[in-house]
Design a protein that fits this description.
Number of helices: 13
CATH topology of the largest domain: FAD/NAD(P)-binding domain
Number of domains: 3
CATH superfamily of the largest domain: FAD/NAD(P)-binding domain
Radius of gyration: 22 Å
Number of strands: 16
Strand content: 15-25%
Bound molecules: flavin-adenine dinucleotide
Largest sheet: 6 strands, antiparallel
Order of helices and strands: EHEEHHEEHEEHEEEEHHEEHEEHEHHHH
Helix content: 25-40%
CATH class of the largest domain: Alpha Beta
Structural class: alpha/beta
Length: 448
């Protein structure tokens, strides 16, 4: 009998799993509820839509996200290859034209004879082998079913997204192109603040009219404690933590001197949203401010006085399950061993992490893959999801902090990161070309 599997959710994890399993000979039924039933964040009917930023983060091997990309490329990820074919300028980051990316994923799925796509919301747990990849905006019907089937204490937090503006409305006499420390092709547009402008902006953010937590509760989620995920903290919330918090964080001016060589007091960067660079994202400006307040406050940014907003920032529910308490080491549910969990709902955080999760689950289903080495980011994300822990479970993204320490940690941070990446890739049997001299590399490999 042929291997058959149902995948619920045609997002990043679901599409990656579908493509992998289909090419391994599995017959895949991929269910996606959009466009019939939408989520609060998706805007198109496409599969694999990126709901917020168009950046899949750094490709450099001295970053954790770059290492995760290298790992899953080595393991056979499909979606990253597609992303590379629709990249937009973003320095060392892999940013994509989001619409083109989604269209190309749809095309790759359509070309696969082993995949049939069914546009329908699933609210019951299927019989037979299945992967649940319904994401952070899983429909209420499915959440409700999971809640009763698993007797689970569901966890969730809120997530904010940043506004996008029309390039034609930017005042180019006030902004300049530059990547931090000139590492890249000057893809970012920089809005420089002097001291007075910066504090006026911060004061406005703090005073701005914003949505309140209770406005996001619905019947199903009412009464559950409202909390943010630290990595997606709204900009006004960061401003409230201290008047200089932003200029030591997302608005730090280091390495972003203006064309005259002067360091501004603070800098807000704009990143292209699409290949034609007609739309720009306000980097780090995820917000809970009401639309009217956003218009007034973000127009205080030097160069954006006349900004036309193509999309306002907003806030959304972001659901995840308590995976370590629910899953077997192969991502299947202890209580429902035919059902596997992938993507953000499983408790990984970020686009590339969700792609990685879809791939790992598919490899467990198709090949019975053994857990990956603990020196790899993918191996540690896997452990984070499937191994019980003492502390409260929180979603995890790629970061070097989850890797075991090196025996002799170098003082130099960059060297340390390169050593982590070299070690991880060596554990996967890949000799990577990282700018580290051979002697140093040999030392790393011998010691670990
Ligand atoms: C508002 C928001 C902004 C985010 N911004 C970023 C960001 O900027 N950068 C980043 O790295 N990560 C971001 N994330 C986190 C995460 O990386 C993305 O949400 C990612 O797309 C999750 O991938 P996934 O495959 O788990 O789910 P998704 O990509 O969301 O895919 C799940 C799919 O399942 C469908 N679905 C849901 N319920 C059902 C059902 N019952 N039946 C059938 N289909 C169903 C949905 O329509 C959706 O297409 C954001 C998350 C949210 C909520």
């Amino acid at each position: 009998m042929e291997n058959e599997i149902t995948i619920i959710g045609g997002g990043l994890a679901g599409c990656e799993a579908a493509l992998y399993l289909a090419s391994a000979g599995w017959k895949v039924k991929l269910y996606e509820m959009r466009p019939g039933t939408n989520t609060p964040a998706h805007e198109t009917p496409y599969l694999a839509e990126l709901v917020c930023s168009n950046s899949l983060k750094s490709t450099r091997l001295d970053t954790a996200s770059g290492l995760l990309k290298a790992e899953i490329n080595a393991l056979g990820a499909n979606l990253l290859k597609i992303a590379e074919t629709c990249s937009v300028p973003a320095g060392h980051a892999l940013a994509v034209d989001r619409e083109l990316f989604a269209q190309k994923v749809e095309a790759a799925i359509a070309e696969q004879a082993n995949i049939s796509v069914i546009r329908k919301e699933i609210t019951e747990i299927p019989t037979g082998k299945a992967i649940l990849a319904t994401g952070p905006l899983t429909s209420d019907g499915m959440m409700s079913t999971l809640s009763s089937a698993l007797g689970l204490e569901h966890l969730y937090f809120f997530d904010a997204i940043a506004p996008i503006i029309d390039v034609a409305s930017i005042d180019y006499t006030k902004i300049y192109k530059k990547d931090r420390y000139d590492k890249g092709d000057a893809d970012y547009l920089n809005c420089a603040f002097d001291k007075e402008e910066y504090y006026r902006f911060v004061d406005a953010l703090i005073a701005g009219d914003k949505h309140e937590a209770h406005e996001f509760e619905n019947e199903f989620f009412a009464g559950i404690k409202f909390s943010y995920y630290e990595n997606c903290m709204p900009i006004e919330e960061l401003a409230r933590r201290g008047k200089d918090t932003l200029r030591h964080g997302v608005m730090r001016p280091m390495g972003l001197e203006n064309p005259e060589g002067r360091k501004p007091f603070g800098v807000l960067q704009l990143r292209a949203e699409n290949a034609d660079c007609t739309a720009y994202n306000l980097v780090g400006c995820q917000t809970m401010l009401r639309y009217g307040a956003q218009k007034d406050i973000f127009r205080l940014i030097p160069g954006l006085e006349q900004a036309e907003f193509l999309r306002y920032g907003s806030i959304h529910r972001n659901a995840y399950l308590n995976s370590p308490a629910l899953l077997n080491p192969d991502f299947s549910f202890v209580n429902l061993p035919q059902l596997y969990l992938a993507g953000q709902l499983a408790g990984v955080e970020g686009y590339v992490e969700c792609i990685a999760s879809g791939l790992l689950v598919a490899k467990c289903v198709a090949e019975g893959l053994d857990i990956l080495p603990e020196e790899t980011i993918s191996g540690q994300l896997w452990r984070h999801l499937c191994y019980p822990k003492d502390t409260k479970f929180q979603p995890m993204n790629a970061n070097f902090g989850i890797l075991p320490r090196l025996i002799n940690e170098p003082r130099d941070k960059k060297e340390k990161k390169v050593m982590y990446s070299t070690r991880a890739m060596a554990k996967l049997g890949v000799d990577v070309q990282i700018p580290v001299n051979t002697e140093e590399k040999q030392r790393i490999l011998n010691k670990e």
